[in-house]
Amino acid sequence: MPSDYVLANEDETLALGTRIASILRPGDCVALYGDLGAGKTTLARGILQALGLEEEAPSPTFAIVQPYEPPETRIPVWHIDLYRLEDPAEADELGLDEARRDTAMLIEWPERLGPGLWPDALKLRLTVLPQPVGDTVGQSAARRLTATVPQAWEERWPPA
């Protein structure tokens, strides 16, 4: 069941991350879809900050997996960026299935998993909205967030 939201700016994206963090549990997967610059990392940073991460979370583009453990975060969480994967089989080496048992996962570029994404993943697609005529160039553009909510998340979504 998809739901749409408009996030007017970066602050609203970070605030949504805070609300998602309040309902996130070990074993959950949040799949973040969108083009380059759509706000996937910003949303992941909002979640990680709300889970207690004090420094700014780096984009895990080169590391692919950036793990966080208590006391750094309230629960164990892996921030994963699959952008550099060329074949879904490469994900097998990351140990995602094993780690997921007791770790929440935030996955950027989940489409790189092919059919390997778990059916109970919360799918969030971010799309940059066109700026109205006359808006200042460089001003943060609004994003549309479309959530595809699986049954495992229905009682928790949308986060308060």
Automatic annotation (TrEMBL):
Gene3D superfamilies linked to this entry: P-loop containing nucleotide triphosphate hydrolases
InterPro entries per UniProt: P-loop_NTPase, T6A_TsaE
KW Oxidoreductase (keyword) present: no
Principal localisation: cytoplasm
Keywords tagged on the record: ATP-binding, Cytoplasm, Magnesium, Metal-binding, Nucleotide-binding, tRNA processing
GO molecular function: ATP binding; metal ion binding
Gene Ontology biological-process entries: tRNA threonylcarbamoyladenosine modification
One of the record's GO cellular component terms: cytoplasm
Subcellular locations according to the entry: Cytoplasm
Pfam (any one): TsaE
Family the entry assigns: Belongs to the TsaE family.
Name of the protein this chain belongs to: tRNA threonylcarbamoyladenosine biosynthesis protein TsaE
Lineage: Bacteria, Pseudomonadati, Pseudomonadota, Alphaproteobacteria, Sphingomonadales
